[in-house]
Each structure stands twice: as C-alpha cells, then as structure tokens.
Write a structure and sequence with these properties.
The protein has a single domain (2-172), classed as Arp2/3 complex 21 kDa subunit ARPC3. 66% of the residues lie in helices and 2% in strands. The longest helix has 29 residues, at 109-137. It is mainly alpha-helical and 186 residues long. It has helices at 2-18, 35-46, 48-63, 84-103, 109-137, 141-148, 152-172, and strands spanning 24-25, 31-32. It is built from seven helices and two strands. Helix 2 (35-46) packs parallel to helix 4, helix 2 (35-46) crosses helix 5 and helix 2 runs parallel beside helix 7. It is a multi-pass membrane protein. This is Biotin transporter. Pfam families: BioY. The chain crosses the membrane at residues 51-69, 76-101, 107-137. GO terms for molecular function: biotin transmembrane transporter activity.
Length: 186
C-alpha cells in the first residue's frame, strides 16, 4: 500500500517535471507538451487504477493553483481553456493505457506498452481533447479533429518512447512494474 501511494505521487511529480520542457503553443491556443508522455508512463508502469490516481492527483494539484502545467500554468482557469479536454482526459488515458498493459500478455512488453500508449495516451486522450476543442472554440467535430491532428506526430513518438522506457525499466528492475508485477524480463 505504501509503495503504491509513493509511486502515485512520484508519477504525478514526473508529469509535472515533464511540464518544465518548454511548450510549443499552436495557433489555436493548445500547447504541445511532453506531459502526455507522463500520462502514458503512468499507465504502462503503474497500471490502470494507480495510473489514473496519479493523474487525478496531478489535476487536483493543478486545480489548487500549483503551476505544474507546461508554461507554468495552474488554477481553475486551465479547465475552461482550449486544452481543458485534454487535461480532463489524463486520468482516463492513463487508465486505458494501464488496462491494456495489464491484460495483453501475448506480445513483448515494449510492443504492448507502445500500442497501449497509442490507444490510451492518444486515441482516448484525443476523444476528450477534441470534445474540449469543440466546446472551447465553437468548432465542429471535423474541424476540432483536424486541429488535434497537429499533435499526432509528436504523440506517436512519445508512445514509442513510452514503450521503450517501460521495457527498459522491466529489464533494469525486474518486478518494478505495478502494471505487471510478475514480469521478470521484457
């Protein structure tokens, strides 16, 4: 129990640290950040429930005003900005990513973690992000989806990196993945 609580806090902090990498803000007000890599890693390393809890903790701290988002943003105002849908999707994305890693054991861990990051950390996250763009910017579904496509190349690279980092962690520290406590080799 204590280890789980500690790791949830550590991965919320990791997501905050990834926010220190300077963002690239797109013309429609949504920044491209490294923080979605943190969301993916929460799922691949911590698993579904703990990954979602880490992201809920992160969002609680942001809502309380801590400047943890890329660019030093925080407070309740970020939850009505064009990027709000993506933020709200963080816990769901981590959960979906972790759920896939926990259950799909027929393929190598790195591949599973990479694919899970695409399904959870991109597809599930984009569902929330696109809905947020539609509401905040008054765009249609096709228009908002087209805007979200600007993030796809970077997010695909982050998904590949999440798969590689997860497999590397499993090799370096067998048994350290809460998403797969029984893994002893990647």
């Amino acid at each position: 129990m204590e280890r789980s609580v500690t790791l949830v806090a550590v991965f919320a902090a990791l997501t905050a640290v990834l926010g220190l990498i300077p963002p690239v803000t797109l013309g429609f007000g949504v920044p491209v950040t490294a923080q979605s890599l943190g969301v993916m890693l929460c799922g691949t390393v911590l698993g579904a429930r703990r990954g979602a809890l880490a992201m809920l903790l992160f969002l609680l701290l942001v809502a309380l005003g801590l400047p943890l988002l890329s660019g030093g943003r925080g407070g309740l105002g970020v939850f009505v900005a064009p990027s709000a849908g993506f933020l709200i999707g963080f816990p769901v994305a981590a959960f979906v990513t972790g759920w896939i890693v926990e259950r799909w054991r027929a393929a190598p861990l790195g591949l599973v973690a990479g694919i899970a990051s695409v399904v959870g950390g991109i597809a599930a996250l984009y569902a929330f992000g696109i809905a947020g763009l539609m509401l905040a910017l008054g765009r249609s579904l096709p228009e908002a989806a087209l805007l979200a496509l600007a993030f796809l190349p970077g997010d695909l690279a982050k998904a590949g990196l999440a798969g590689a980092l997860t497999a590397g962690l499993a090799r370096a520290r067998p048994g350290s993945l809460l998403s797969r406590p029984d893994v002893h080799a990647a």
